[in-house]
Structure formats: C-alpha cells, structure tokens
Amino acid sequence: MPPVIIGSFEEFEKHNGQSLGTSEYFQITQEQINIFAKATHDHQWIHTDPKRAKAEGAFGNTIAHGYLTLSIVPHLWEQIVDVRNLKMMINYGIESLKFANPVLVESEVRLAAKLKNVANLRGTVKAEVEVTLEIKDQKKPAFTGVLIFLYHFQ
Questions:
Q1: The MaoC-like domain covers which part of the protein (predicted)?
Q2: What is the C-alpha separation between 50 and 60, in angstroms, rounded?
Q3: pTM higher than 0.85, yes or no?
Q4: Which residues are within 8 A (CB) of 118 and not within 5 positions of it... i.e. 6 or more apart?
Q5: Which helix (H) or strand (E) holds 59?
C-alpha cells in the first residue's frame, strides 16, 4: 500500500481519528542488535551473546533492545506517511510507551499507525500518532504508544 501523502495541516486533519496504515515487515538481525549495542554501550548478554541467550535466557535466543525497536520507527513511519512541503519535523515526545513483548532475533516487525489527534498551534502542526509495533506471527505487539511529532510546513 502506498504511503498517505500529506502536505498541509488541512490534509492531516482529514485523517484525524483514522488509521494511517501499516508498514512493510522489517527483519531484526543479530548484526543490527550488535551495532545498536556498540552505539549505546548496552552489551547485556540477552542481546549480544546468542550461545548464552539460548542456554540461560528466558526467550531461547537473543532479543532486540527495546530502544532498538523504537529507533526503527522513522524508517517504518515513512512507509506509512509521506509528509511533503516541510521546512522541518521534530520528534516532540512519546506518551504511554509500553514494551509488551520481546522481539527475538530474526523476527519481523511492522508499524501500524492511527492519527489520534492533530492540532494547528499557530502554524506548527502537532500530530499525535498511536503506534503499535507488531511482531509477525505473534498476538502480542512489541510495543504500543503515542508518538508526538511537530511539523513545520512551508
């Protein structure tokens, strides 16, 4: 499904309270986990030591860092919404984020998004987006939350 194209507050407003769509699936690899561990200095064995994770871990394999799963949101978000005519976009906040299910290495995840609310704040568009990071073949998502973006259109 092609992304929803939005180029103004009025176009955002048309989608208020509606589903915006779902991204393609994205596979989480051990290489990505290791690179993220190096970048964040979080080398906990449940993420980076496959042998130990299989032998001693509660999940039978390594798992992605929760913040790694959150960090792929921009990549998945741009598959859902193509915001055009922008001067700038700012990640403004996250509300009620819950990591509900670990993402095992080699799992595939995708983002589902719904526009919870949109407001025009003196020319800056504040978009509150309910997101769910779904794990392929799992009932329980990796996380849910509300992301808040500020869009400055030209």
A1: 12-132
A2: 9
A3: yes
A4: 9, 12, 13, 15, 16, 125, 126, 127, 128
A5: none
As a residue count, the chain comes to 154
Please give the chain's pLDDT, 154 residues, in tens. Answer: 799 999 999 999 999 999 999 999 999 999 999 999 999 999 999 999 999 999 999 999 999 999 999 999 999 999 999 999 999 999 999 999 999 999 999 999 999 999 999 999 998 999 999 999 999 999 999 999 999 999 999 9
Give the single-character DSSP code of 103. Answer: -
Beta bridge partners of 99: 143
What domains can you pick out in the chain, each with its CATH number? 4-153 (3.10.129.10)
Name 119's bridge partners.
126
